[in-house]
Design a protein that fits this description.
1 helix
């Protein structure tokens, strides 16, 4: 009986440890998701700006090439 009680206590300890690990990993993943979302938003803005710059440069080039 004592052996079974010891096994039960060990299993409870392992369960608690695994539960804490899962909670920690969940928090880490949520933080990473927030950072990744911010990074994606920044990259989208940068892409939009670069497309605007490219469009402006193309328009200037076309305007200059029509003059010559």
């Amino acid at each position: 009986m004592q052996i079974l009680e010891k096994c039960m206590e060990d299993m409870k300890a392992v369960y608690r440890l695994n539960e804490e690990k899962l909670e920690f990993n969940h928090k880490v993943l949520n933080e990473r998701q927030k950072v990744n979302s911010n990074t994606i938003a920044g990259l989208k803005n940068k892409d939009r700006r670069n497309r605007d710059i490219l469009r402006t440069v193309k328009e200037k080039f076309d305007a200059q090439s029509k003059q010559y």
